[in-house]
Structure formats: structure tokens, C-alpha cells
Amino acid sequence: MPSEVMHAGKTQKEREVSLRNFRFGEPPILFATSVAGRGLDVKGVSLVVNYDAPDDGEDYVHRIGRTGRAGQKGTAIALLSVIKDGHAMEYIEQVMVKTGIHVPAELSKHLNLRRARNGRPS
Predict the structure, then answer these.
(1) At 69, is the secondary structure helix, strand, or coil?
(2) Furthest-apart CA atoms within the chain: distance in Å
(3) Smallest Cα–Cα separation from 4: which of 85, 24, 116?
(4) Which of 65, 70, 32, 38 has its CA nearest to residue 51?
(5) Partners of 49 in the beta sheet?
(6) Average pLDDT for residues 59-84, to the nearest whole number?
């Protein structure tokens, strides 16, 4: 399936062309780094996959917010590593709890183990 790419290694003009094409649905897939995390208003985004967890909760909210424009709903998926993304798991859980989204049992399990290792209550 055709796709577009946006990252810091592309010129601003190349990024603008990728974004324009994606906005019009040709192609329907955009692979992007954090350069697409903020300030882009694209309607109709139904899925955001975070391959690398953002550095903080605010960036996470901005990334997943790509799916919630103008009252629309979508899906956000975060691919997390138990070894390196413990901090990300914390803020993702906080966002889920704050917004009333069910926290998956697997995420809770890993967070409880992490908290126990760090001497914090779960």
C-alpha cells in the first residue's frame, strides 16, 4: 500500500508535500516522527501507532490527539518495551485514567511490578 513519510531528514517543502498528499487521502498512510506530533490539523485520522513512546505525557497527548479532531473518534496504539519504556507506561496510564479509558491488565501488571521494584505502592 502506498504511503507518505515525514521526518526531520526531509526538507520543509518535502514534508509539506507529504502532508498535503496525506490530507487528501492519497496515500492513506503517513509514517511520521515527532515532527507530526503538534500543530498539524488533519481531519479523518482514525489510527495513530506510536512505535517509539514520546518523551513525556504532553507529547503523548498531542500525538494521540491526531485521532480526536472535531469530535471524531479513533484508535491510538503504543508499542512499549518493558525494559526501556517504564516512564512512558506511567504517563500513558495517567492519561487513560484521567480520560476514563480502561487500562489494559498487561499494562497494570508491568506498572505494578515496576513500582514494587522501586519500593512504591501499586
Answers:
(1) helix
(2) 51
(3) 24
(4) 32
(5) 77
(6) 83
Question: C-alpha grid cell for residue 8?
Answer: 526531520
Could you tell me the three cell numbers for 100? 476514563
Question: Left, alpha or beta for 116 (phi > 0: left; psi -120 to 50: alpha)?
Answer: alpha
Residue with cell 496525506: 22
Range list of H helices, the chain: 12-23, 57-64, 86-98, 105-117
Name the band, by pLDDT with cuts 50, 70 and 90, for residue 122: low
What local confidence, expressed as pLDDT, does residue 104 receive?
94
What the block records as the C-alpha cell of 45 is: 485520522
Q: Judge contact between 109 and 116, C-beta under 8 A.
A: no
DSSP code, position 65: G
| pLDDT at res. 106 | 94
Whether the bond between 27 and the residue before it is cis, its omega within 30 degrees of 0, is yes
**Which residues partner with 60 through β-bridges?**
none
Asked whether residue 59 carries a pLDDT value surpassing 90, the answer given is no
